[in-house]
Amino acid sequence: MEHITLLIGIVIVTALVFDFTNGFHDTANAMATTISTGALGPRAAVAMSAVLNLVGAFLSVEVAKTISGGIIDEGSGIQPEVIFAGLVGAILWNLVTWLAGLPSSSSHALFGGLIGATVVSVGLDGVNGDAIVMKVLIPAVAAPVVAGIATLAATRLTYRLGRDRSPEDTAKGYRAGQIASAALVSLAHGTNDAQKTMGVITLALVTGNVVAPDADPPLWVIVSAGLAIALGTYLGGWRIIRTMGKGITDIQPPQGFAAQTGAATVILASSHIGFALSTTQVCSGAVMGAGVGRKGAVVRWSTAGRMVVAWVLTLPAAGLVAGTAALLADQGNAGITAVAVLAVLACGAIWMLSRRKPVDHTNVNEVAPQEPVGAVTAALRSVAPPPAGAASTVPEDGTSESTPEQTPTPAAASSTTR
Question: pTM value?
Answer without folding.
Answer: 0.76
